[in-house]
């Protein structure tokens, strides 16, 4: 029993590891040596609001961990796909990003208040959120469920099952509740949604068998499965694809600056390189837009 517990704990901790070089050599996440070196584009940098431009810093609100998009390496440094892309975007703008950790649901209010210049935490660009902030799209992700290996969970018929989600994500606020309502409307038991403050906690709950399944954004689920050493597998395919976006204070010219910076990186191929480094190229986009919500 002790050996089994050690094995489980080792797996749980593996979900918090970073992009070490051995992982990169095994075809997993990118090695830090693959960082893309973007350069300033004066015409785009000129769109940055004067106070931000003068400070030389881009204050970025982020919630971790949400591997492989944003999480901490063993030294405590925030790394991930989102981080590498934001580093490149900031370089195009002639700025240095400064990452500030916050609860996921506090980032958008902090942007509205001017505490952060931009949010970077795998935000789905939705019509509801666009009422609060503007968004610059940079990726396209869907929802995907995971289950323990050998499971038989159907996301469209998970009535009565315990499903882990990260609190305040789209899976928590929209997707799982809609599926649960379909269950109760059909006279079946509701889905028991189990909320966690972080995605790592949700994933670990599934690994330990405390829940029947988890629902998360497709790149996050794929990464969790890849890192689980065969303990987890997909439960169904990817559905409900929608854009990720950077939330920005409404009406700020920083929105145009960010959109043009992302598009510049798409056009010169560095965006694709960053996505490939992290193995998330399936959701790469060809055009960045402002307020591109589909629902």
From TrEMBL:
UniProt KW Cell membrane keyword: no
Keyword annotations: Signal
Localization: Cell envelope
Domain of life per record: Bacteria
Residue stretches making up the Solute-binding protein family 3/N-terminal domain: 57-282
UniProt xrefs under SUPFAM superfamilies: Periplasmic binding protein-like II
Signal peptide from the UniProt entry: none
InterPro entries in UniProt: SBP_3_CS (IPR018313), Solute-binding_3/MltF_N (IPR001638)
CDD domains: PBP2_MidA_like (cd01004)
Family, similarity comment: Belongs to the bacterial solute-binding protein 3 family.
Protein's name in the database: ABC transporter substrate-binding protein
Gene source species: Gordonia jacobaea
Phylogenetic lineage: Bacteria, Bacillati, Actinomycetota, Actinomycetes, Mycobacteriales
